[in-house]
Amino acid sequence: MIEIQFAVIVLLIAMTLILSRYYNTRFRALEDKMKDVADFQQSVKELAEAVQDLKDAVKSEKAVLPEPEEKEKTELTHPVVPVGQRQPAVVTARPMAVVEKTAPQVSSEGVDDEVVAVIMAAVAAYGYPPSAIRSIRPQKRGYKRHRENWAMAARLGGMSR
Q1: In-domain check, residue 161
Q2: Residue 159 lies in a domain
Q3: By residue range, what is the domain housing residue 117?
Q4: Alpha-helical regions (H) of the chain
């Protein structure tokens, strides 16, 4: 019976030592984490002070800068507008001129003057100046160009000659 009691006491002592070692390491880990948090809080505090110093420096610079005597024009005659925000130019209507009806005149390249006028009006309504048009002429399609397009379509389709 004494042997059993002795064995139980030894077992309890061993368990106490193991648990004390386990909790000791856990407490050390917790203390290390608390130290890291304290260091982090200190660095955040130093950073906040540095930001406040920069704000104070900027305020003092603004107070020291003299006002310019003449305000410069910052507006552009043609402001730059991002592509997604562009809108067509609004053109005010001009009084209509009376024109006698005549036969359509054909320019030297074979395009009617009325077609040229419509194209230029459409380009101007979109917001481009008339000088942006370089030339208006019909597109000529030759046999060779036609053949190249069919050949490319055949290549893309996986056909061989």
Answers
A1: no
A2: no
A3: 108-137
A4: 2-64, 113-126, 143-157
